[in-house]
Task: inverse folding
């Protein structure tokens, strides 16, 4: 299991130190939640902040864009040093074009689905993807409760992946903790995002290790 702590739950006044701490504590990827106050009710940070943080670690920068019309900013996020750029299916009218652009920029391309969005909406584009991010909470805030029907969705996605012999990463984001990690792994999740579970624990290393199963 790859573990991607979300800095949404970090101390924003000490972001560089927080990233260094999770890097040392064994984080595989650094998850960056970009919110625009339109696609989701909350506003966080954008490409300039990511660019400034890029010098703090060599770990994979995993940008989760919860923004409307993300095409407007793909160049900026690529130039800021993001390795994965994940957009929401619900925010893209021409998803194929958006994914192609991310790849042209030399980055890994991901698509995220809200809890109420069906896997069928990305079936045609699965062969083009490096990652599928299944939201297990409604995006916008950290610390929400895991939505149980995500398990069935992960399993279904795993079957689609196997049947079509594809190799995208199956990532799950929202409400992940030491209690549900085993079932997530069993269903086929390969990478978890964890915000409050990691940053809410005084021992980041112990929290991250408990997710690496
Ligand atoms: C939610 C974000 C998540 C969030 C997860 O909109 O996409 O990455 O930080 O936080 P927890 O792990 O606290 O649910
Ligand atoms: Zn996220």
Result:
């Amino acid at each position: 299991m790859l573990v991607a702590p979300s800095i949404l739950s970090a101390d924003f006044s000490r972001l560089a130190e927080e990233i260094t701490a999770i890097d040392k504590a064994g984080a595989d990827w650094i998850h960056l939640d970009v919110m625009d106050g339109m696609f989701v009710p909350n506003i966080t940070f954008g490409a300039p902040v990511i660019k400034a943080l890029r010098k703090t670690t060599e770990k994979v920068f995993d940008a989760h864009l919860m923004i409307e019309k993300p095409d407007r900013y793909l160049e900026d996020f690529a130039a800021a040093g993001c390795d994965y750029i994940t957009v929401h299916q619900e925010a893209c009218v021409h998803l194929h074009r958006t994914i192609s652009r991310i790849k042209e920029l030399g980055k890994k391309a991901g698509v995220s689905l809200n809890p109420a969005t069906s896997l069928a909406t990305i079936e045609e584009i699965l062969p083009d993807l490096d990652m599928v991010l299944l939201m297990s909470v409604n995006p916008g805030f950290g610390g929400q409760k895991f939505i149980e029907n995500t398990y069935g969705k992960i399993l279904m996605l795993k079957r689609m992946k196997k049947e079509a012999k594809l190799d995208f990463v199956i990532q799950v984001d929202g409400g992940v903790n030491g209690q549900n990690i085993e079932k997530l792994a069993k269903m086929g999740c390969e990478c978890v995002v964890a915000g409050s579970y990691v940053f809410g624990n005084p021992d980041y290393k112990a929290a991250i290790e408990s997710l690496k199963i």
